[in-house]
Design goal:
CATH class of the largest domain: Alpha Beta
Number of strands: 10
Largest sheet: 5 strands, mixed
Shape: elongated
Structural class: alpha+beta
CATH architecture of the largest domain: 2-Layer Sandwich
Number of domains: 2
Order of helices and strands: EEHHEEEEEHEHEHEHH
Pfam families: GTP_cyclohydroI (PF01227)
Strand content: 25-35%
Radius of gyration: 20 Å
Protein name: GTP cyclohydrolase 1
Bound molecules: guanosine-5'-triphosphate, zinc ion
Catalytic activity: GTP + H2O = 7,8-dihydroneopterin 3'-triphosphate + formate + H(+)
Subunit structure: Homopolymer.
CATH topology of the largest domain: GTP Cyclohydrolase I, domain 2
Family: Belongs to the GTP cyclohydrolase I family.
Helix content: 25-40%
Number of helices: 7
Distance between the termini: 33 Å
Length: 214
């Protein structure tokens, strides 16, 4: 479904993360609009009324937008200074769609890595989060996809990803656990295996969360 490409050569500076027409889920906008109109009817509403006339178009368009992340280049640079400590971007805001109820779950991501031969443009860490969030997801898969993509494209010594999110399907409806947060993580390489690195990553992400009352 998602195309992940990068150039492994020493001179590579950018890898493109996007979706090809052949692999992306096909979004049939007219069919989606009709389905929303049918849903309105099934919910006892009149989609021809002045208030709801444009709702099928809007809803179909909104889903298409939420499920079509923009491609971007995964720009990397040589790590000429051999920077070997943690690079960590905390509190990257994201929203995704829970695949069970098609309701949003949203929160923050903490993404870090221990550089190897290359470092990555910092904004790209947030773009990777946004990219994989632009799909129907469960939080566990989203966490793994972000970490594994960084591991494969950057070949760092370690990767750490923590997602902390609220699921509207759990707070607005159903169990109505308002304010409940779901925390998922994936640690790879040295960040998983070396206790000092792991503890530093956990301490810094916890501090970032506490500072903002997450
Ligand atoms: N593991 C996981 N579960 C999720 C995620 N998002 C939503 N869910 C859960 O998916 C489950 C779907 O369970 P079902 O029993 O089929 O659905 P339901 O009858 O609407 O369940 P309730 O939400 O308990 O009312 C629920 O427990 C949701 O909380 C996610 O990202 N990861
Ligand atoms: Zn859900």
């Amino acid at each position: 479904m998602t195309l992940l490409t990068w150039d492994d050569s020493d001179t590579a500076e950018a890898a493109v993360l996007g979706r090809t027409a052949g692999q992306a889920p096909v979004i049939d906008l007219p069919a989606a609009q009709q389905a929303v109109a049918d849903l309105l009817v099934a919910l006892g509403r009149d989609p021809r009324s002045a208030h709801l006339r444009d709702t099928p178009r809007r809803v179909a368009g909104a889903y298409a937008e939420l499920l079509t992340p923009a491609p971007f280049a995964m720009t990397t640079f040589p790590n000429d200074e051999n920077y070997d400590e943690l690079v960590l971007v905390t509190r990257i805001a994201f929203s995704s769609l829970c695949e069970h109820h098609l309701l949003p779950f949203s929160g923050v991501a903490h993404v870090g890595y221990l550089p190897g031969e290359r470092i990555v443009g910092l904004s790209k860490l947030a773009r990777v989060v946004r990219h994989f969030a632009g799909d129907m997801q469960v939080q566990e898969r989203l966490t793994v996809q972000i970490a594994d993509f960084l591991d494969e494209s950057l070949r760092p010594r370690g990767v750490g990803v923590i997602l902390d999110a609220e699921h509207l399907c759990m707070s607005l409806r159903g169990v109505q656990a308002v304010g409940a947060r779901t925390v998922t993580s994936r640690l790879l390489g040295t960040l998983r295996d070396d206790p000092r690195s792991r503890q530093e990553f956990m301490a810094l992400t916890t501090a970032a969360s506490r500072a903002h009352g997450d």
